[in-house]
Amino acid sequence: MFKATINAKDFKKIIDATSNLVDEICFEVDENGIKANAMDPSHVALVSVNIPKDTFEEYISDVHDIGVDLEALKKIMGRAKSNEKLTLELDEEKNKLNLILKNDAVRKFSVSLYDVSSTNLKVPDIEYPNEVMIKAGAFVEALKDAELVNDHVSLKISEDGKFIIFSKGDINQSETIYDNNSESILDLKITESSKSTFNLAYLKDITKATSSDDILHIYLGSDMPVKIEYNIGNAKILFLLAPRIET
Amino acid sequence: MFKATINAKDFKKIIDATSNLVDEICFEVDENGIKANAMDPSHVALVSVNIPKDTFEEYISDVHDIGVDLEALKKIMGRAKSNEKLTLELDEEKNKLNLILKNDAVRKFSVSLYDVSSTNLKVPDIEYPNEVMIKAGAFVEALKDAELVNDHVSLKISEDGKFIIFSKGDINQSETIYDNNSESILDLKITESSKSTFNLAYLKDITKATSSDDILHIYLGSDMPVKIEYNIGNAKILFLLAPRIET
Amino acid sequence: MFKATINAKDFKKIIDATSNLVDEICFEVDENGIKANAMDPSHVALVSVNIPKDTFEEYISDVHDIGVDLEALKKIMGRAKSNEKLTLELDEEKNKLNLILKNDAVRKFSVSLYDVSSTNLKVPDIEYPNEVMIKAGAFVEALKDAELVNDHVSLKISEDGKFIIFSKGDINQSETIYDNNSESILDLKITESSKSTFNLAYLKDITKATSSDDILHIYLGSDMPVKIEYNIGNAKILFLLAPRIET
């Protein structure tokens, strides 16, 4: 038994955020809520989703592994209107997940389940020297600056405690500098200077589903994976992206 | 002699609605107004347009067959602004149709006439067991739901008198259900349950030029063509689409 | 030494207007401001830019030739927000031009300089029988009308002093007529009827960066190049386009 009702807008955003990196996912559901961890096909990025029970208006669940094609789910959620309620319902007999949207019409979608077994993937518990709290919109804009000159980008903490998004191409370079006076910065918890370089396409995928006012927690160290976390309603989404090895 | 003035917005919509299905058309004009019937190249859909004289601000006409390339007309009407008046004028000597738009500038377009003879095509007079009056926007949204899973769609009247837009793919399915309580439904005149299946691309073409508040009259029966009618100002446009033979 | 601060919006528009025709350009800077003349690769069109010193908030300059890739500059300026200040700064040691945008973040871009030597290109001093002052939006709309029927367009002054944008295709034709009563016409200084025909794609490139309320000065004669001038803030931009030889 699994039946859960949530506002369609939040679930749409969770699916959007996840589907940019991963094609299929196994939702591990139980009485406490929905969890899912997955790695992208190249094993460079990890995404972890946690939707606690209290995010839902109605929530009844036994323990199940629900493997779904995220592309199909994304298309269906793309059809939801922002004020709609979504009911998710497991049809164990037919091995399908039903998605029911109620508004002026009743709309029922159903998708076949995949045999995606739970991965037992754990999010590694890393300690970071630096944490940046920044509005998603400001970070996304800085990535667009970097994109003009190259396909990778360095996230740096300078000696004097500034957060620098830096990119260097063969002939051009770009640099976006945020400090404590920037309105888009909510907090800079800095203990040391650091620099790591990342594939820009992954960072764009990771931030694609954000709204510009979402608050990103970006955890940084030298040549360490970057950890990026934000909330979607009561749900939490976390990304871990391996650094690019510079030669 | 043929000279007629109409507001550009209405004529643009008539041309848009027609040109989605048909490449060229023969406007049969006379003292009562403009009529045209045409079938799409695959002979699956029929469109019938009736623009009575009183739709026009000014209307003077003898009997003529005016064959035009709808793609050219559509492009020209795409250049009209919604508050403009359009004058249509037959130049019999040069065998051209002139389209004159007056606003800040005077804009004159002229298109060569095609030798598209009047087809004597008649709209068959079919009696239908069921009629659905629904806002065009709601019907178009339901077609988009169906499009997620397959390229054809079933229009059903259920035993309990609901209007169901249903689509089934290899692994997914979608279903949009309207009943008398739906705000988008203006009327359901039901005498029996029915089901017919149609090519989705045709239904999309038929409804592409509609505004979401246009009222569609959809006539349905089992394995019968669907008839869809709506008004554009005082003009009436009607589509007949053959059902898909299910195997 | 070259350092100049200007509002980003104006500089963006100057770069947009220029880059539609030319790939690289040599800015000739001195104590009076920035000048640049360039021809498009096919030598059909000439663009001339003049940004006097008083256009800038801050301006300090020796004499330099600054050769830049306009495509790179266009991309960077595309990242500027309309309320931002832009500082241009020549780094003679590294042979780079720095572009610094200050807002919530500090953003530094730098582009390598090209060895584009000053061309000594002069704008020929031609006397024209006719001058049309027209809102850019109205002229651009007329070009779109013409585009429906052919890839070249005639700019005509009629015997009775109207400004006509005319295009003729194999089967269709279009004509947009402005006179002294048209609101989009600010002035018509006519001394004789005239007609010249131009490549439509060039005219579209020349007017692409305009806002609809910009005032174009269009200078016309029979089988003469057309000269089109407009202002961007205090800066002046001028285009000269050779006529199409009609056979």
UniProtKB/TrEMBL annotation, chains A, B, C:
GO terms for molecular function: DNA binding; DNA polymerase processivity factor activity. The keyword Signal does not apply. It comes from Methanothermococcus okinawensis (strain DSM 14208 / JCM 11175 / IH1). The lineage of its organism: Archaea, Methanobacteriati, Methanobacteriota, Methanomada group, Methanococci. Gene3D superfamilies: 3.70.10.10. Residues 122-244 form the Proliferating cell nuclear antigen PCNA C-terminal domain. This is DNA polymerase sliding clamp. Keywords: DNA replication, DNA-binding. GO terms for biological process: leading strand elongation; regulation of DNA replication. Sliding clamp subunit that acts as a moving platform for DNA processing. Responsible for tethering the catalytic subunit of DNA polymerase and other proteins to DNA during high-speed replication. The keyword Nucleus does not apply.
